[in-house]
Amino acid sequence: MNQPVLAEHVGNRDELTAALSGWTTPRALPGLVADWPVVQAAQESDDALVQYLAQFDRGVTVDCLALPHQEDGRMFYNDDMSGFNFTRNRQPFQSALQQMLALAEQSEPDSLYVGSTTLDTCLPGFAEANPMPLDALAPLATLWIGNKSRIAAHYDVPDNLICVTAGKRKVTLFPPEQVENLYVGPLHFTPAGQAISLVDFKHPDYDRFPKFAKALEQALVIELEPGDALYIPSMWWHHIEGQQTMNMLVNYWWRQTPAYLGRSENALYHALLALNNLPDSQRQAWKALFNYYVFGESSRRFDHIPENRQGPLGDVDEPTLRQFKAWLANNLKQ
């Protein structure tokens, strides 16, 4: 049975960075940005929201996804998974917003969605007018705006704080260990970069996806109103629905590790290529090695090796790490 997300009440936004550093599970933050001017404009009307955003717009062209009404807002693959059920085009941000206003007048509107657009590039000055004091985390701020939409369950490697500024969002979250029960699609061919669950959350097919029922038993569900925020930890799966004629959120992504460590996903991709087709006995042997070298819980398991000979088994600084990456890249050529 679905469980609610634990709610937290931070005294003020200046205390948020310290709070975020201590959380490892999702947290709802009711009313965190209710005082933002953009939230107040959106609560007046969709037109007022568009007018408010116009003062920051500098004519930037954005990536837009268009989806026929028959798809019921679900951004997904086409029937044979040879492509996608939406079309992609680029147009000025204001043009996209005007289209959304026009769609709101239709009884059966198509969906239009502008996602993952860097806030400072698209709307310079918006962040200063609607502040979020997370400078210590060096986050990337992006905006997402559209009418009715359903974004398939996926995970993101960075930690994520989403702030609803217009409309309503329903978010369903799953811990990382539920991956087997979410029936995830291809890694190399995805609608927006991240692998997604193939389950239609609105109409789940339990004959095709029987273990999805187990995932739902562990799901956390929350409905966010304008001004509410939600912290989504790294690697947690999340399905997001925009439910109104105009839905907008601003999110902040950050990593807890230095950028020079690189993309963790690359280790998964290479492991699949190198190990997936080995005989089972060898796969089990490599599993034991990974459990020892990579996922071992004892911080002292390499103490029998002199510290100056531990190499990548020990703590390495950025220059040394780059040397080992070069060594790895050279080995990958063979």
UniProtKB/TrEMBL annotation:
JmjC domain mapped to chain residues: 112-269
Coiled coil: none
Native source organism of the sequence: Alteromonas salexigens
Descriptive protein name: Cupin-like domain-containing protein
Gene3D superfamilies named in the record: Jelly Rolls
Pfam families in UniProt: Cupin_8 (PF13621)
